[in-house]
Specification:
With 99 residues, this protein is an alpha+beta fold. Helix content is 69%, strand content 12%. The protein has four helices and two strands. Strand 1, helix 1 and strand 2 form a beta-alpha-beta unit.
Length: 99
């Protein structure tokens, strides 16, 4: 029986995708059945496009703004608020994938 590997990534930066592709290649070469899932695609398109654009611009043009935003999103209260809005939508789609 072949082993299955699920690789989760987020396509906000090219490094996430590069890492996922490298993992997929390594596992596939050892006869594992691999699936790569981009979790960013599980968000509503407008949210994904907006946040991705913000990431791209702020991380390259305004790194201090990106650092502040990253640290802010890492704080427990902001993270809880963000996930309380996105979690039900995201979780339902993810559960269907796993099933």
């Amino acid at each position: 029986m072949s082993k299955k590997v699920l690789i989760l990534t987020g396509s906000y930066g090219s490094w996430h995708n590069t890492a996922a592709e490298s993992l997929q290649s390594a596992y596939s070469s050892n006869w594992y059945i691999t699936t790569v899932v981009d979790l960013a695609e599980y968000y509503k398109k407008t949210i994904w496009k907006t946040t991705k654009k913000f990431y791209e611009v702020s991380s390259s043009e305004f790194p201090k703004v990106w650092e502040f935003t990253y640290d802010l999103m890492d704080s427990i209260k902001i993270k809880d608020l963000f996930y309380s809005f996105s979690y039900p939508y995201f979780q339902n789609k993810f559960n269907k994938l796993i099933e």
